[in-house]
Structure formats: structure tokens, C-alpha cells
Design brief:
single chain, 281 residues, alpha/beta, five-stranded antiparallel sheet, three-stranded antiparallel sheet, 27% strand
């Protein structure tokens, strides 16, 4: 089993280190990672240093105490619970979207439930903080501090939403680390008998770089679905993206339209190559 640990500093450090163990008084294991410099796109061009460490060889379904930092400065000690392995168990996930830095009324209950062991992982399907980049990223900093008590305990999985669009989704890309190498836009992962496929609906709406990213995602999604459809090890296939394909609201969203771009693809491209998602599912 493995876990990825991330944190942010406003000054560079000599190293990015996690010390961990099965008891807080005995953090004898050490894993080093890497640090990148992230320059915010706002007027102040605030510099943040994003640290990422991947810890491998952990026991499944086990608790570990850990702290993050470097030789001369450490965080407080946190406790994480690793995921179980195999497919003969039923994972419990908290799944939600649209949670801001202010008025996050569900956060106290989430913290209580996760601390009591009610959930194995979290899936936050878009729209963080309102917004991660607002006020030179300080709203994003506040939000990350607010979710610290839950995101330090179990895997905090994500998908991008429309509110992450600022500066080409750079805050979303740099503040989280999802599996694969697709800038956190799309990825898949197995948990118990389920195969989760996370994709970006936003690649159909924010087209400053054209449709190439949507095309890359489409081809990846098609291949991933084909591989998963054997259902030999993971009979459940669950897909998730921020914007719905179908809805019954009256506010003019794309999901109300007969020719919804997510369902039927880009209208100027020929059928069969217009990147429509509905036929894949």
C-alpha cells in the first residue's frame, strides 16, 4: 500500500521529508520527495513551494503517525489510515462537490465521521474554496488549511470543476496530486471491487488551448473503459466528473440542452469523432 503526502510552504527548503511510524513516539521511517516552485498568476505573483512525498511499502488498512517538513522545521504529528487491498471488501467513500472556504457547513460533520473511521477515502468532484486562486491564492490557502483535518487522515481524491479555471487551472494542478500524469484532469484507480474513473468535464468548456486536451482525455477514457469492462477483478465501474450529463433544472445549464456538449460532443465535428461521452458509457 502507498500514500501520497502534500504540503505547501512559502519559503524553499533543503528537502521534502515525511517521518512516519506506527506510533507517534517512534517515527523511525523516513521518505524524501520533491519540491516545485509555483508562481500564482495574480497581481502579486505570490510564490509557493509545493512538496510531494510518496510513501510505499505500507501495511494495508493500518494507521500510521507522521509529520512533514525538513531537518530544521517540522509539522505537528498527523495520523493516516491506509487503504485495504484486494477486492473482497466494501469501501466507504464521502463524495461531494462545491465546497467553499466560507460556510462549509458539512465540514464539521465530515471531520467527525472521518475521525471516527466511517470513511476510507474522500472524492471531491470539483469547485474548491470559491476559489482556489481568489485573492492571490489566499482563499485557496485558507481552504487547504480547513480541510487539513480530513485530508491528512484518508486519501483526498479530486476532479476539476469550473471554479478552478483561473490561470489555466494552475492552482488545482499544483495543489493536488492524483494518479497518472495527466495534470490531475483525468485518472483512474481501484478501491475494493470498484474501478473509479475520474474525468474533466471542463475540457469541453474552457478551450483556450483548443480541443486537443479533450481529445487526449477521450482516447484515454475509451481505453480505460475497455480495459475495465472485463470486470474480472472490479465488477463496479464508477465514473465521475463535475458537470452532469443530465439534469432537470431550469437555469440554462448545458445538461438541459438536447445537444449537450458533454453528451453529444462538439457540434462542428463529424459524428463518431466529435468526442461525445454518452456513447462511451
Amino acid at each position: 500500500s502507498e500514500m501520497v503526502v502534500m504540503w505547501t510552504t512559502f519559503d524553499p527548503t533543503n528537502d521534502s521529508t515525511v517521518q512516519y511510524g506506527e506510533h507517534a513516539a517512534n517515527l523511525t521511517n523516513t521518505t524524501n520527495g520533491h519540491m516545485i516552485k509555483f508562481v500564482d498568476g495574480g497581481s502579486k505573483h505570490t510564490i509557493r513551494y509545493m512538496h510531494t512525498v510518496t510513501i510505499t511499502g505500507l501495511k494495508p488498512a493500518s494507521k500510521y503517525d507522521y509529520k512533514v517538513g525538513c531537518a530544521d522545521k517540522w509539522s505537528k504529528v498527523f495520523t493516516m489510515t491506509t487503504l485495504n487491498t484486494g477486492t473482497n471488501w466494501s469501501p466507504r467513500l464521502a463524495i461531494y462537490g462545491d465546497m467553499g472556504s466560507t460556510n462549509a457547513q458539512s465540514l464539521p460533520m465530515l471531520t467527525k465521521e472521518i475521525s471516527s473511521g466511517s470513511f476510507d477515502a474522500i472524492l471531491h468532484i470539483g469547485d474548491f474554496a470559491y476559489n482556489l486562486a481568489t485573492d492571490d491564492g489566499t482563499v485557496g490557502d485558507a481552504f487547504m488549511n480547513e480541510i487539513q483535518d480530513i485530508a491528512t487522515q484518508v486519501p483526498y481524491m479530486t476532479a476539476p470543476g469550473n471554479h478552478e479555471y483561473a490561470y489555466n487551472f494552475s492552482h488545482y494542478i499544483n495543489r493536488f496530486a492524483m494518479p497518472g500524469n495527466h495534470s490531475n484532469y483525468y485518472y483512474s484507480w481501484d478501491i475494493g471491487p470498484a474501478h473509479f474513473i475520474i474525468f474533466s468535464t471542463e475540457l469541453y468548456f474552457f478551450l483556450q488551448d483548443g480541443i486537443d486536451l479533450a481529445a487526449y482525455q477521450y482516447r484515454w477514457l475509451e481505453d480505460d473503459l475497455k480495459a475495465a469492462n472485463s470486470r474480472q477483478d472490479n465488477p463496479w465501474i464508477i465514473t465521475a466528473g463535475h458537470r452532469p450529463m443530465y439534469c432537470s433544472t431550469l437555469d440554462g445549464d448545458d445538461c438541459n440542452r438536447r445537444e449537450s456538449i458533454i453528451r453529444t460532443g462538439f457540434p462542428l465535428l463529424p459524428e463518431g469523432s466529435n468526442l461525445a461521452l454518452e456513447p462511451l458509457f
